[in-house]
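Researcher: Re-running this chain for the archive, since the previous output was lost when a drive failed. Same request as before.
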Amino acid sequence: MQTGRIDTVDALRGAAMVWMTAFHFCFDLSNAGLLHTNFYLNPVWTWQRSCILSLFLVCAGAGQAIAVAQAQSWRRFWRRWLQIAGCALLVSVGSMLMFPNSFIYFGVLHGMAVMLIVARLSAGCGRWLWPMGAVALALAFAAPWAMEAGWLDTAFNGKTLNWLGLINTKPITEDYVPLLPWMAMVWWGMAATQWYLRRLALPDTQSGPLARALVPLAFLGRWSLSYYMLHQPVMLAGLWLWMRA
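Model: Regenerated structure tokens:
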């Protein structure tokens, strides 16, 4: 561990950023009519989105585990949280301009803002984080059946409550990351990192240096929020210029 961080977590987050960039670039090509595929139905793309998002959320849980282990203050937590929440608001505004009929009102940053609070409050649950994640996953998968059976109110499909994830109809939006089932990934990332930190505390266990090839990924992972907010405007501007040239 260096400078209060675990380089492996940063590299994993950086890898997710590179994968996300490739995914978004292909999406932009499709949106411009240069790539003919359905990003909303084709499993090649829907499964990639799920894997990329899972990597991000596992890293978010890992980050919270590290922060709690280092006794990060609530003041510092809220400062970072406000940055994420502010960027989520910018994403909503930007998506309203591009996709007025399917703008992002609860995407990855919106979900992250809620999940980080839940993660911080539940960090002391220890080994219970594993079954808590399993329950979150099970609830999300059981919700459609419960709604069809009348055990769950259809009001959970509306925008007021669908951020919880207890739905049987996916909302029309360009990005949707509800609390369930995705909180499972945050909890599991936190649980795995807490286990890893306990092992690092053992006398015969050390954290080795990061492989040189992964150093650029770790650097990218440390600036994930800034990169996330900038990569799409840069790619869209470049694509616009290229199409007009």
